[in-house]
């Protein structure tokens, strides 16, 4: 009875095994033909390589999310290096070994008036040199780090000009400035030294050495950056007075070529 049932089963019924067998045959047959042509025909190999390059090209730019036509624009991805046009100026610093004033060439912009150049010098004195600057002189290894006392400067001006009389910064050219006045905030001097010595052990002698070193380096750097400069005067809150605990006398004029006090 069972044999007759199996024999009478419809031959057109669905079979999973036969379905996948037919599917694999339908896929493998064209693939085998293509591989045979790929091995026998150079033109097919050439077209295959071109399509592979095209797919990888489009896929790469799709993943990075950019337009491949940007390759047609020169320097769209990689910008040519720009050389530093700033001149080298002998900037002064303090020697770690003997606390003497030493000089090393550094890049400094001399564009603008004397006040702008003086402010750049005040900032650069306490800043470490850049990677390219560090290769220009061995003296950089001997420079002692200094606090950023440029933040304590209230005003810089050239006395005797109409702008100075009106209380605004002067636009005297850097090559013509023979005299500079620099007004300081006493409280900012203390604050910047405290910030510089944060998490460091330091006594009163260390504080005095750092502040004195900054102003010694500043005055010498100003004379190097401004060739016409002959004298520098410091004021504290608009008055000519010394600051307690400093060996460098802010109440005395600093002359070009004068020996250190």
Please summarize what this structure is:
The protein is 40% helix and 13% strand. It has helices spanning 2-7, 16-40, 42-64, 114-125, 162-166, 186-196, 204-225, and strands at 88-94, 101-107, 153-157, 179-184, 231-236, 254-255.
Task: Report Rg.
Answer: 38 Å
* Average pLDDT metric: 81
H and E order: HHHEEHEHEHHEE
Strand content: 5-15%
Strand pairing plus helix content: what structural class?
A: alpha+beta
Largest sheet: 4 strands, mixed
- How many individual domains? 2
Identify the overall geometry. elongated
Q: How far is it from the N-terminal to the C-terminal residue, by CA?
A: 127 Å
Give the helix proportion (percent range). 25-40%
Report the strand count: 6
Total number of helices? 7
Uncertain segments? 1-10
Give me the side-by-side strand order of the main sheet: 3-4-5-6
Write a structural description.
The protein has seven helices and six strands, in the order H-H-H-E-E-H-E-H-E-H-H-E-E. The chain is α+β, with helices and mostly antiparallel strands. The strands form two sheets. It has a four-stranded mixed β-sheet. The protein folds into two domains: 15-72, no CATH class; 88-255, no CATH class. Mean pLDDT is 81; it is low at 1-10. Strand 1 (88-94) and strand 2 form a beta hairpin. The radius of gyration is 38 Å and the shape is elongated. It is 40% helix and 13% strand.
